[in-house]
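Weekly puzzle thread! Below is a chain. First person to post its structure in token form gets bragging rights.
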Amino acid sequence: MTLASDSELVAVDTRGHVATVRLNRPAKLNAVTQEMSDTLVRIVQAINDDPGIRAVVYTGTGRAFSAGSDIATLDQYATPWEFRNRRDYCDALRALRKPVIAAVNGYAFGGGLEAALTCDIRLAADVARFAAPEITLGWVGGGGMSALLATSIGASNASWMLMTGQPIDASRALAWGLVTEVVPGDELLPRAHELAETIASRPPIAAQTAKANLRAAYNLPLDQAIAYERELQGITFATEDAAEGRAAFAARRPGVFHGR
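Winning reply:
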């Protein structure tokens, strides 16, 4: 399957088993419109349906990862209920079954921070900045901001971000555990693609199962999480890829995995 975007505001391209999805509205700091959200929904569905894509890099063009929703367009919704029921870009990213790496190249504010938090792994350029500024405008985030921040950086740090709306820089984001690595800006995408290619080289069923398992682990009591993991282990152990992994280990050679 050939991946393509139907909007110039969201670019998508593939290299090997890795798809790169890039917000492409730099003049507006990659603020997301409803058109862009709808496009992301379609791109995610295409990635999920494409067995050749095993990992995803999500990033932005220019000096911003994303400034979140385009506030200038929010009054287009006739009612708060219509706004609540819109297609949301964070929900689209959450629907990705493939592992996804956020390459945070600049500002990740509001929904942009939520989008980064929705990704499985976050890498940041040294110039990146992160903020949950919704409180300064009179509302709170709705794409998982509170839960995902608390899970990532702890209640106190999450409270600081949510209640002040003030930004933090990349070094503090690293110290707080919001991101995994900070690299110079010109090294960000090469590093993100290197990591994505490593993940894409792993058995794809096991990689997607690991993602689903980790998500469940955050939502289940410990005993249930362990029981669920044991069931997933049994399922993955029965795949052709697992048999290939055992054969490759015995032969001391790299495994060749096909997602079966």
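Puzzle host: Confirmed. Bonus trivia for everyone else. The first strand starts at residue 10 and ends at 15.
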